[in-house]
Amino acid sequence: MNWDDTSSVTDDTQAGRLVGAAADGEDQAVEAALRPKSLDEFVGQERVREQLDLVLKAARQRGATADHVLLSGAPGLGKTTLSMIIAAEMGAPIRITSGPAIQHAGDLAAILSSLQEGEVLFLDEIHRMSRPAEEMLYMAMEDFRVDVIVGKGPGATAIPLELPPFTLVGATTRAGLLPPPLRDRFGFTAHMEFYEPVELERVIHRSASLLNVEIGADGAAEIAGRSRGTPRIANRLLRRVRDYAQVKADGVISRDIAAAALAVYEVDARGLDRLDRAVLQALLKLFGGGPVGLSTLAVAVGEERETVEEVAEPFLVREGLLARTPRGRVATPAAWAHLGLTPPRQATGGNGQQDLFGA
Ligand SMILES: Nc1ncnc2c1ncn2[C@@H]1O[C@H](COP(=O)(O)OP(=O)(O)OP(=O)(O)O)[C@@H](O)[C@H]1O
């Protein structure tokens, strides 16, 4: 078994979710048109952009291939986009593949041996590569060489194969899961953060103009606030709001149109969808704010344990609406406020639920 198969669970359960961060079929079709093509066009992530700009400029000045780059961060924050920008800025071609697609060392050897000098190899979900392929990658990254094993058993021989210098851009949602020998072979590691609402507004304005949609500043702000810090979600919500504006109004996106459209899709002012709110509502209304065990909570909302834990909870925790404590799931005071409910006395009192956070 792969040493991390949780992301495939998450991808499956996110399917069809308007605020899911993984790409769906429609995203893939539209995203190519919306991707920024240069570092200057790439919105936000100032620190990463500045550092990467230096790495790439220095390599260009030396006439060398850029160092290997590791990009870590949640889905939809722009890792694929950045890898394409790296190739474009280096004037190099790019080859795109992913960890799960490379199950045998031979798959990787075939890709590596066909790279051109200076080419960028983008390896998405690098933490999901098989162990033998990973070990082959160590040598390829460090010495630009692989040993191709010919034959089996005692008669097997290793034939060394020289590779042209290339730049590996690895992407992972979980840098902590990468084995240290792999992590150490990257010359530059960038951690991508969730975007601030003002940055998402810029993403939305840029995408709206590429899609020929008229949008006001307040309309963009309304969509940005519901986009969970993620450009992919911002672009997806923009497309749904565009549909609404076109069918129900004059096509122009104002704050009211954006809010009305996203109410139809049940994405609330904070970016919570129906599942997120069902989890919070069960926690507050059925269990008085907790603590309650994950399995019980999942049964109460009629979902699988994994769906609640991997799809709904991460964002609720990030938003400070739910806490995972040793005694179970607990709603925070912000959760009561968000759903407009009054907490029972012990939830706000001195010795009650708050001990679970403070102590
Ligand atoms: N900084 C940014 N500025 C403008 N648009 C962005 C930015 N980051 C991402 N996007 C947009 O968001 C979409 C998703 O980005 P991308 O595919 O690069 O994310 P990702 O991190 O590679 O996701 P995954 O991990 O699922 O592969 C793209 O269409 C791109 O247009």
Description:
With about 350 residues, this protein is α/β, with parallel strands linked by helices. The chain has three domains: about 35-190, P-loop containing nucleotide triphosphate hydrolases (Rossmann fold); about 195-265, Helicase, Ruva Protein, domain 3 (Orthogonal Bundle), CATH 1.10.8.60; about 275-345, Arc Repressor Mutant, subunit A (Orthogonal Bundle). It contains 17 helices and nine strands. Strands 2-3-6-1-7 form a five-stranded parallel sheet, covered by helices on one side. It has a two-stranded antiparallel sheet with strand order 4-5. Adenosine-5'-triphosphate binds near residues 75 and 235. Adenosine-5'-triphosphate binds near residues 124 and 203.
Question: What's a quick, concise take on this entry?
Answer:
Keywords: ATP-binding, Cytoplasm, DNA damage, DNA recombination, DNA repair, DNA-binding, Helicase, Hydrolase, Nucleotide-binding. It contains 17 helices and 9 strands.
* CATH class type of the largest domain: Alpha Beta
* Mean pLDDT score: 88
Count of discrete alpha- or pi-helical segments spanning 4 or more residues:
17
- Poorly predicted runs of 5 or more residues: 1-10, 347-359
- Unique bound compounds: adenosine-5'-triphosphate
CATH topology descriptor of the largest domain: Rossmann fold
Beta strand count: 9
Global structural class: alpha/beta
Cα(first) to Cα(last) distance is: 39 Å
Series of H and E elements: HHHEHEHEHEEEHEHHHHHHHEEHHH
Radius of gyration: 23 Å
Q: Trace the largest sheet across and list its strands.
A: 2-3-6-1-7
CATH fourth-tier homologous superfamily of the largest domain: P-loop containing nucleotide triphosphate hydrolases
Work out the helicity level: 40-55%
- The outline comes out as globular
Strand content: 5-15%
Oligomeric state:
single chain
Q: Quick one: biggest sheet?
A: 5 strands, parallel
